[in-house]
Specification:
elongated, mainly alpha, single chain, 0% strand, 2 helices
Amino acid sequence: MKKTRNDPDMLDEYDFSGGVTGKYAKRYAEGANVVVIDPDILEYFPDHDSVNDALRGLAAIIRRRKKTEAIICSR
């Protein structure tokens, strides 16, 4: 097994010989949105479901606000 000398975190016990290069490349190329959450809010968003739920709620507020602003502006 080839050892990566430049990476101190790669131990001899790691075996990637069964790995497949580019296994998810096509799916990733079709579109992927990766967002890194800052540590100070990680406790509030522990998984992707909590992030999606919060963003859906925020999107609903934004939609309602835009409708309200449109009504006010049309008067």
